[in-house]
Amino acid sequence: MSKPLKVAIAGLGTVGVGVVKILETHKDLIRSRCGRSIEVVGVSANNRARDRGVDISGYQWSDNALDFAGQDDIDVVVELIGGSDGIAKELAQKSLAAGKSFVTANKALVAHHGADLANTAQEAGVALRYEAAVAGGIPIIKSIGEGLAANELNLVYGILNGTCNYILTTMEATGQSFEEVLTEAQRLGYAEADPTFDVDGIDTAHKLAILSSVAFATETDFEHVYTEGIRRIEAVDIEYAREIGYRIKLLGITRLTEKGLEQRVHPALVKKNEPIAQVEDAFNAVVAEGDFIDRTFYQGRGAGQGPTASAVVADIIDIARGHTGPAFFVPSGELKKAAPVPISEHEGACYIRLHVQEKPGVIADITSILKEHDVSLDVMLQKGHEQDGSVYVVLVTHKIQEKILSEALNRIGELSSVQEEPLAIRIENL
Ligand code: HSE
Questions:
Q1: Digit-coded pLDDT (tens) for 341-385
Q2: Residue of the nearest CA to atom 8 in ligand 1?
C-alpha cells in the first residue's frame, strides 16, 4: 500500500468538523477505496479551546493556517475559512506554489481567482479541487467535468442557493412575506445573520461563474454575471405565477453561444411540471445539457455539514488516488476568455407586476406605452382591491428583448398612477 496522504485542515467550523468526522468514521472504507490511508496531520482555527464535538487533540494545532504551506509533511491543504481574498487566497497561492494540493469549499475564492489558481496548480503539478463550492453535496463538478466530458455542453442552469429556495417555497406554502420568512429562517439558523450573499444572488453568482468554467472551459468571470436576488418577490407574485402555471425559483443560468457567454442569476418563472420547479426547501438542483447526452438533472442538499464535508472528502480521496489533472478539466492555458453577453440583449417572455391606482384610464396609459415599444401581451390580469384604492395588474409579455422591455417599464414606472417600481420576472422555458 502507498504511503498515507497527509492533510491539514484550515478552518474548523461546521464543514471542517464534518471533514474530521468523515475521515474518522470512514477511515477503513476510505483506505480501501484509495489504496492508502488519509491522515489529518494539522488543524487550524480561531479558537483552540472551543468544544467542537470531535477530538482534535491528536492533531498538530496551528494558530496561523499559512504555516501549513511551509510544512514538508503536508501533502494537501484543505481550506474551509471562506472569503474571496485575505487569508484564504494567500493560503491557496502559497500552498499551491509550495507543491501542495489544495481543496476548498470556498466559492468566492474560486469564482474570483479560479483561473489564476488553476494556473499555479498546474505549474506546480498539484491539484486544485473545489467540488464542495458548488451545490454542496451534489457532485456536479465531477459530473460535468468528467461524466459529461464526451459532450459539447449547451446550457447549464440550476437552483444553487438553498436559503433562497427555502424562502421561496416557504412563502408559497404559508403565504408569508419575504421578510417574515427570512426572519424565521434566521431565528432557526437556516439563514445567515447577514443574508446579503444569499438573498441578493451573490452566492448563486459565485457558483454559476464556476459552473461556466467547468462546462465551457472559459476563464472564471464573476464580474460579468448579471445578478438579481429575491428581495422584491412578494407572496402575490408566487400566487399569480401559480395561477398561470408557473413557480418562482432563483436560478443561475449559463450558456455559451456564438454571441459569447451569457451568465445570469435572477428569480424566474419556471413551468410547474418541470423537474426544476419541483425542487423544494433548501435543496439544490442542476440541469446540464450536452449535445449527445441531452438533458441531465441532479438534485441534492446544497449545504450543511454532512453534504458539504462529503464533497470535500471526495476531493481529498481523488487526490489520494493520484488524480491531479487540471482544475477546470482542460490545461489552464486553454481556458478561453469569453465575451460577456449583456443582459440587455437577453430575449424572453416576462411576468410584470404593477401596483396601480384603481381609476379610469390607467390600463389604457400602460398599454399605450407597451404599444409604442412594440411589446406584445400574452396575459393580463387585474387582481384584488386594496383598501387604499390600489390594485395589482399582472402582465405576461410574449418574447421581447430586455433592452426594449426595460425602456417601456421605465416609462410605465413614471406614470403618476403607478405606485411602485414595476417588478419584472423573466419567464424561462428552458
Ligand atoms: N449559503 C448557501 C445556501 C450554502 O444557502 O445554499 C453554502 O453555499
A1: 999 999 999 999 999 998 899 999 999 999 999 999 999 998 777
A2: 303
**Does 386 fall in a domain?**
yes
Same structural domain, 147 and 279: yes
C-alpha cell at 6: 497527509
Statement to judge: residues 119 and 146 lie in one domain: no
Q: Look up the pTM and report it.
A: 0.96
Residue 335 lies in a domain: no
Query: 61-81 pLDDT, tens per residue?
Result: 999 999 999 999 999 999 999
Answer for the pair 243, 397: CB distance below 8 angstroms, yes or no.
Answer: no
For residue 329, is it within any domain?
no
Residue 37 belongs to domain with CATH number: 3.40.50.720
Residue 161's SS3 state is: coil
For residue 105, the ligand 1 atom closest to its alpha carbon is 8
Helices 202-216 & 107-124 angle (0-180, nearest 10): 30
Measured in Å, residue 250 CA sits from the centre of ligand 1 at: 13
Does an H or E element contain 213, and which? helix 202-216
Q: Which residues are catalytic?
A: 207
Ligand 1 pocket: which of 203, 204, 249, 279 to mutate (most atoms within 8 A of CB): 203
In three-state secondary structure terms, 257 is: strand
